[in-house]
Amino acid sequence: MSCGEPHETDCSEVLDHLYEFLDSEMPEGDRDKIKVHFDECSPCLEKYGLEQAVKKLVKRCCGHDDVPTDLRAKVLGRLDLIRSGQAVPEHDVTASPASPAAPASSTPTPQES
Predict the structure, then answer these.
(1) Cα 56 from Cα 61, distance rounded (Å)
(2) pLDDT of 30-69, one tens digit each?
């Protein structure tokens, strides 16, 4: 999306980082550049408003689910590994070590019988 007007920060860059902006997960200097862009660009401001409304709706409808403690610990542990630059295991973080994935069924199909 582009409004066709030249900006210090390009529309595509603003939209690529929109969720980081919405979640306050970017440096303040970058946030300031995006705020300036929104002041100048009504299509990007409209997109921001739409995404902000969707985010609020999702939070209102789905924000009350409790996350299991063990899942939270596994996800946080994996994030720590990623941040430290260590290799991240490829296995499913939601799988419990005590209950590995179920093996493929060995029951013969009617065609095999």
Answers:
(1) 9
(2) 999 999 999 999 999 999 999 999 989 888 887 777 778 8
